Amino acid sequence: MELAIAAGVLGLAFFLYGLSSGKASSAYAVFVDGEVVFSGSLGEDVEFILDERPNMVFVVRDGKAAVVSSDCPDKLCVKAGFIGAEGQSAVCLPNKTMIRILRNPETDAVDAVAGK
């Protein structure tokens, strides 16, 4: 009986952890060459183009962000679609640009930067 209760508690703990991981964030940042050039709230719907990357179009809508247009050849950044869970990103390697959903806007940073 005690084993069944312990298993139930452990199962509940994993369930609650699963609900909390990957939860929606409230912020995003756009990185160019590893540096943050733009950031904002996922709660504010906006479409924008960066001075640093005039051939890319970014959209934030309904708590999610996306690259909707890019001049890169394979368009993997566009194919990533709308992202909204913390830690998710859409990366354009040819343009050295990334939009990332932030876990913590105060401390989130790029994991790695490709050489120039």
pLDDT < 50 runs, ≥5 residues: 3-22, 112-116
- The CATH level-2 architecture of the domain at 24-101 is identified as Sandwich
The fraction of residues in strands falls at 25-35%
* Count of discrete alpha- or pi-helical segments spanning 4 or more residues: 2
Instruction: Just give the CATH class of the domain at 24-101.
Output: Mainly Beta
What name does the CATH topology of the domain at 24-101 carry? mini-chromosome maintenance (MCM) complex, domain 2
**Describe the biggest sheet?**
4 strands, antiparallel
Return the average pLDDT rounded to an integer: 80
Sum up the overall morphology in one term.
globular
Biggest sheet, spatial arrangement of strands: 2-1-7-6
The count of strands amounts to 7
Instruction: Classify the helix fraction into a percent range.
Output: 10-25%
Q: What structural class should be given to the helix and strand makeup?
A: alpha+beta
Taken in chain order, the helices and strands follow as HEEEEEHEE
CATH 4th-level superfamily of the domain at 24-101: N-utilization substance G protein NusG, insert domain
